[in-house]
Amino acid sequence: MDNDDKLAKHVELVQGVINRMASNSFLLKGWSVTLVVGLFALAASGGNWAYSVLGLLPSLSFWWLDAYYLQQERLFRKLHDAVRRGELESDLYGMNTAKYAAYVPDLLSTAFSK
């Protein structure tokens, strides 16, 4: 396997991780809507508004998890760009994104980003 094939495989691996992050984020949003709508339906039908307040907990939890997946996706996009440019020849197949953390907003900033 020559160096170009190895580079292409590394790009493919990183792209697979990015796709999984996007897929997980999408699934989280679906589960969040389902769970919160179910709790609101219980609150409306039973007259117990504690269920609607209880709906805030999963909403905030899923929002935070979505922000986490978005931040991780951004980190892996930075890694993808570095691999694509050939900057990681010494760390072939490396998936460590720690050195790109300075270039990606922190979790709180990501949670409030558009």
UniProtKB/TrEMBL annotation:
> What is the protein name for this chain?
Uncharacterized protein
Keyword annotations for this protein?
Membrane, Transmembrane, Transmembrane helix
Residue ranges spanning the membrane: these are 26-43, 49-70
